[in-house]
Amino acid sequence: MWILKWHKMYRENNTPENYAAAVSRDARPMPAPLPGDYPTEPDNGWRYGFRRTRRHDKLCKRYGLTETAEQGTEFERALRVMQWFCANTYYNGMAFWSAMLPDNTPTILRYAYRKPFRRAINCRHKAVALADCLLAVGIDALPIGMIRDGCSHVIVHVWLTQEQRWVMFDPSFDAYITDETGHVLNIIEIAQQHRAGKPLIIAQYHLNGAQDCRDCYLSYFMLGSIEELLLFDHTPRYTRKKMRNSLLPAGAKSNIKRSRAITASELLAAPKK
Q1: At a CB cut-off of 8 Å and minimum separation 6, what does 53 contact?
Q2: Directed axis angle between helix 105-112 and helix 54-63, to 10°?
Q3: Cβ partners under 8 Å of residue 95, min gap 6
Q4: Which residues of the chain have pLDDT under 50?
Q5: Has residue 107 been placed in a domain?
Q6: How far apart are CA 270 and CA 123, in angstroms?
Q7: What backbone phi and psi angles, to 5 degrees, belong to 133?
């Protein structure tokens, strides 16, 4: 039965246009704001640490990442890397075969880089690969999983050393979000803006090179998923094998096994050096 179901889903989503139509058909209305804010205390000193390895050197050499990033602010360099990555890989949140890939960036890029839509990858692998590519050019970044009412999505937090803050990049949609002043937001600020009823501006957006589903991006993928935020100890990997650090709004309970509560203060703190 599951084979027949997968074949039906594959037929319905075997082109970028078909996938966009399926997303538009299944999109949910804008969810209610979170009932509570993310707690900031206690800060127990949990921090992320990043380490550049020889694997990152190989990524730079094989894909010309240093030349892609070029000069400029960290935000400008990170944005160019995301734009390059999105221009050379397709996204399909319903891709069956890509879900079988390990969270290993060389493997992900060999599978998806400059390949046709049937080699599209899901949001988890998009986030894992972009975070690694940013680390390769010296920019700290990590994937963050989001879960709410059965919806899930994975984005990337990027650390801007010059500004001493995190910002959110979404490599599935080549997107980032700002407030009405143009201030680029991190994932906590996005949730706070929605809770306060303030506008969220999609500053950049492409779904597989098109503007499809832009009208439902915030409600279906972002705000529809923001509640429990999932991270992992001692690695910028989003995998199912290690203890997860879980951040929840006040009063909410985690449904994820092997999770440990952290606070917004810890999530947004500067990385360890």
Answers
A1: none
A2: 20
A3: 13, 120, 121, 122
A4: 1-4, 6-7, 234-240
A5: yes
A6: 25
A7: -65, -35
Give the tens place of pLDDT for each residue, 103-121.
899 999 999 999 999 999 9
Range(s) of the domain holding residue 255:
2-267
Structurally, the chain folds into a number of domains equal to: 1
pTM recorded for the entire structure: 0.92
- Using CA atoms, how far residue 159 sits from 15, 186, 222, 267, in Å, is 34, 10, 20, 11
| Measured CA distances, 111 to 17, 60, 70, 253 (Å) | 21, 17, 26, 37
Q: How many CA atoms lie within 13 A of 79 on its CB side?
A: 15
Residue 155 has φ and ψ, to the nearest 5°, of -125, -175
| SS3 (DSSP) at 77 | helix
- Give the rounded distance of the alpha carbon of 216 from its chain centre: 17
Instruction: Give strand pairing partners of 175.
Output: 170
Q: Where are the alpha helices (DSSP H) in the chain?
A: 2-12, 16-26, 54-63, 65-69, 74-88, 105-112, 123-136, 187-195, 214-216, 264-267
Residue 214 in any domain: the answer is yes
Tokens 């690969």 correspond to 129
| Closest CA relative to residue 235, chosen from 48, 94, 46, 66 | 48
Helices (H) and strands (E) in the chain, counts: 10, 8
In a domain, 272, yes or no: no
pLDDT at position 150 is 83
Please report whether residue 121 resides in a domain.
yes
Distances (CA, A) of 9 to 12, 40, 94, 96, 217: 5, 42, 8, 9, 21
CA nearest to 173, candidates 156, 196, 194, 188:
156
DSSP output for 86-114: HHHS-B-TT-SGGGGS-S-HHHHHHHHTT
